[in-house]
């Protein structure tokens, strides 16, 4: 079973683009929800994450956080293990 990676993002956010590039380079499929012009979706993201900035990323049921959090996981060597555990 493939892990689901959910990412709330914006088309104009450089951090979203960087996070998406990292996830794609790892071969991870992304379910991307664009919050641009969609206040209900942004509100949903804020309720789930407690944060108002994009991107907000979940690997399986684990809220990773934003772009910096995702890259920190990768630098720490924890990204692959999290993906495997979530799958």
Automatic annotation (TrEMBL):
| Keyword Cell cycle on entry | no
Q: Where is the Glutaredoxin domain?
A: 5-64
Molecular function terms from GO: glutathione disulfide oxidoreductase activity
Stored CDD domains: GRX_GRXb_1_3_like (cd03418)
Gene3D superfamilies (UniProt xref): Glutaredoxin (3.40.30.10)
Q: Any idea which UniProt keywords this protein has?
A: Cytoplasm, Disulfide bond, Electron transport, Redox-active center, Transport
Q: GO terms for CC? A: cytoplasm
Which Gene Ontology BP annotations are present? cell redox homeostasis; cellular response to oxidative stress
* Function according to Swiss-Prot or TrEMBL: Has a glutathione-disulfide oxidoreductase activity in the presence of NADPH and glutathione reductase. Reduces low molecular weight disulfides and proteins.
The family this protein is said to belong to: Belongs to the glutaredoxin family.
Q: What is this protein called?
A: Glutaredoxin
Gene that this sequence comes from: grxC
